[in-house]
Amino acid sequence: MDGLDICSIGLPDLRLKLSIIPQEPTLFRGSVRTNLDPLGLYSDDEIWKALEKCQLKSTISELPNLLESFEENWSMGQRQLFCLGRVLFKRNKILVLDKATASIDSNTDAILHRIIEEEFSDCTVLTVAHRIPTVIESDMVLVMSYGTRSSRMYW
Question: Domain range holding 43?
Answer without folding.
Answer: 6-154
